[in-house]
Design goal:
By secondary structure, the chain is mainly alpha-helical. The chain has three domains: 94 residues; 267 residues, Fumarase/aspartase (Central domain) (Fumarase C, Chain A, domain 2, Up-down Bundle); 65 residues. Helix content is 69%, strand content 4%. It has 19 helices and six strands. It has a two-stranded antiparallel sheet with strand order 1-2. Helix 6 runs parallel beside helix 12. The chain is elongated, with a radius of gyration of 31 Å.
Length: 484
């Protein structure tokens, strides 16, 4: 019975085009790996295996990608079967499908493509980490006012801020690497649900396709999608974190702040207001990242109420969303990295703002506690009263004001020279004395930059190992099929 034209138009044709774009290459690799295993296990004879190998070799991927959907074939898998049958006959072509199902084939090719997406996105986060580390190394002594509750709170440094972002990205790398490991397991051999009565070698096909190993339970191999949700979740966490940083960077680009100036290649002017320098690159990064975050949530919504069984038909429509999510996530992160590599901070303006609004006053309270034995609450009260007094009596010298309010709180005046108070309340001093591990003191941020560069080198080496393992598997697969 022919398919209804509406079903063809709205489902089969769309899925066929998506499959050609996303899954043709992994599907062909699966065919070769399964064939090699069938031959090695004696499930298919060597002569038939060679004929199948030659038939697979005759398929032109470029021709397949150019082919229009034929309603006589349900999907790309069936279309490729028809090409094999034309070359080596129905009997021989039909032997390739021994001991497998579209369920385990499809789930395998989905994982093969997804692991590439994860590696690509992970690599983009390395670019951003390197960019932020370079900024941190350059700006270890560039003070600026950090905010809490959207209000200036305490001085810190650009290095300290960037290192906080880097540590978050380091944890993102841990999550994405774990997602890669969960994804990089081969369902091939699970067949439809229960595996096969044939003596298949799942470890062999797993090795030939570059997986870390086969999946376990055959039911779960074709039913579970937690591996997909794990990678979508890891990507979503990364996007949320980067998005918050981009929000700050855009604020810093405003005329009201003027902390950050993007280079000419990353801004646009207005069609009628020539004075404007619109930070469009970061605006696009924010929009693209938000889009990708929405797509990650869409992935979860698409699968959360599907039965715990055959997920393949759902994934036909889901996989383009997975591709789009990783593509946009990677675009957003790469764009932020490229934009910030060429951006400039206005160190003088940052310093000026860091000295305003009494945001260094916590250090005066700390000093009173350290040097005069006051409780911090008493010292905090002195500091608070000092601010209030000075706002009402701007003509009174700071040292005199401190002596007055401290006498009210502590019972006797505490005296410092004006020069000493100016030093205590400077943003540079505030930062310099905060040598807490992970703090903003320049020597501490220098140490942290070194540690994070080492971590980045380690993560990049692990990424290279994963990529090389896939390339080595491709070579093993070529050798195995050639030897048939």
């Amino acid at each position: 019975m022919p398919f209804a034209p509406e079903y063809v138009k709205y489902v089969l044709n769309e899925n066929f085009e998506d499959a050609k774009t996303l899954f043709l290459s992994p599907l062909m690799a699966i065919h070769y790996a399964h064939l090699a295993m069938l031959a090695r296990q004696g499930i298919v004879s060597r002569p038939d295996a060679r004929r199948l190998r030659d038939a697979l070799d005759s398929i032109s991927e470029s021709d397949v990608r150019a082919a229009a959907f034929d309603a006589g074939f349900e999907d790309l898998f069936c279309y490729l079967e028809s090409l094999l049958a034309k070359t080596c006959g129905d009997d021989v072509a039909g032997r390739l499908h021994t001991a497998r199902s579209r369920n385990d084939v499809d789930m395998t090719m989905y994982r093969m493509r997804q692991r590439e997406f994860i590696l690509g996105f992970l690599s983009s986060t390395f670019d951003l980490r390197r960019t932020f580390l370079d900024i941190a190394a350059e700006h270890r002594e560039t003070v600026f006012p950090a905010h809490t509750h959207t209000q200036p709170a305490q001085p810190t440094t650009i290095a300290h801020y960037m290192l906080a972002a880097v540590e978050q990205l380091e944890r993102d790398a841990v999550r994405l690497t774990a997602a890669y490991e969960s994804t990089n397991r081969s369902p091939l051999g699970a067949c439809a649900i229960t595996g096969s009565g044939f003596p298949v070698d799942r470890q062999l096909t797993s090795d030939l396709l570059g997986f870390s190993g086969p999946t376990g339970n055959t039911y779960g191999s074709i039913a579970t999608v937690d591996y997909l949700l794990e990678s979508a979740s890891a990507a979503a966490v990364t996007l949320a974190g980067v998005g918050r940083i981009v929000q700050d960077l855009l604020l810093w680009c405003t005329a009201e702040f003027e902390y950050l100036r993007l280079s000419e290649g990353f801004v646009q002017s207005s069609s009628i207001m020539p004075q404007k320098r619109n930070p469009v690159a970061l605006e696009h990064a924010r929009a693209i990242g938000s889009k990708a975050l929405g797509q990650a949530i869409g992935i979860m919504l698409s699968v959360h109420n599907t039965p715990f069984g055959d997920i393949v038909d759902t994934e036909d429509d889901l996989q383009p969303l997975v591709f789009a999510m990783f593509r946009d996530a990677t675009r957003a992160v790469k764009l932020v990295a490229a934009t910030m590599r060429r951006a400039e901070f206005d160190a003088q303006r940052l310093r000026t703002r860091a000295a305003e609004g009494w945001i260094t006053i916590t250090e005066l309270a700390d000093t009173l506690t350290r040097e005069h034995g006051l409780s911090f609450r008493a010292a905090h009260e002195i500091a608070a009263r000092l601010i209030a007094f000075c706002r009402q009596h701007a003509d009174v010298p700071l040292a005199a004001a401190l002596a007055l309010v401290s006498g009210e709180v502590a019972g006797s005046p505490i005296r410092y020279a004006d020069e000493r108070l100016a030093e205590l309340l400077s943003p540079e001093h505030f930062v310099r004395v905060r040598r807490t591990p992970g703090g903003p003191a320049p020597e501490e941020t220098a140490r942290a930059v070194t540690v994070s560069r080492t971590t980045l080198a380690h993560d990049e080496a692990a990424w290279t190992d994963m990529r090389q393992a896939l390339e080595a598997a491709e070579e093993r697969l070529r050798t195995e099929t050639t030897s048939l």
